[in-house]
Amino acid sequence: MSSALTPPNPITRSDISRVVKSFYSKVRTDPQLSAVFAQSIPADHWPAHEDKITDFWANAILQERRYSGNPLQVHRAQGHIQPEHFAIWLDLFDQTLAEILPSQHAAAFSKLAHRIGASLRMGMEPPKAQGIPSLG
């Protein structure tokens, strides 16, 4: 998968790790997201979750191949994550990117995050009633 950040890639795995750790630190204190994440990630599992998400972003940005999984399937399986949570998530993620990365790198990372977030949100929305197609 080609991303808006390659080549040449100005973001390092260390940058990604700093973004992920800072972001999830904010998530744990966010009035809306903290409860959502607390239902899914026990306190002692945060380091492993952050490592996995760092692998996810390193896969998407750096084409590393350490991440394997299906994010949509994982989010659906939780049962309590709603499509509207993604807008809150993305706002907080954008704030984190702006704090950590130079503006052009933050903008490119944000663009990728918004594309992935929109896809996840759409995948979480209940199917719309289409009705029965007319044959006549």
Can you walk through the features of this model?
This protein has 136 residues and is mainly alpha-helical. The chain has one domain: Globin-like, CATH 1.10.490. It has 6 helices and no strands. The longest helix has 22 residues.
Main traits of this protein?
single chain, 136 residues, mainly alpha, Globin-like, 0% strand
Structure, briefly:
The chain has one domain (13-124): Globins (Globin-like). Helix content is 63%, strand content 0%. It has helices at residues 13-27, 33-40, 46-62, 71-78, 85-100, 103-124.
Q: Estimate percent helicity.
A: 55-70%
Low-pLDDT residue spans:
none
Q: Give, in order, the helices and strands.
A: HHHHHH
Please state roughly what percent of the residues sit in beta strands, choosing from under 5%, 5-15%, 15-25%, 25-35%, 35-45% or over 45%. Answer: under 5%
> How many strand units?
0
**Ends apart, CA distance between termini:** 43 Å
* Total of DSSP H or I helical runs spanning 4+ residues: 6
CATH class: Mainly Alpha
CATH fold-level topology: Globin-like
CATH superfamily: Globins
Largest sheet properties: none
User: Radius of gyration from the CA trace?
Assistant: 16 Å
Count of all domains = 1
Class by helix and strand content?
A: mainly alpha
CATH architecture: Orthogonal Bundle
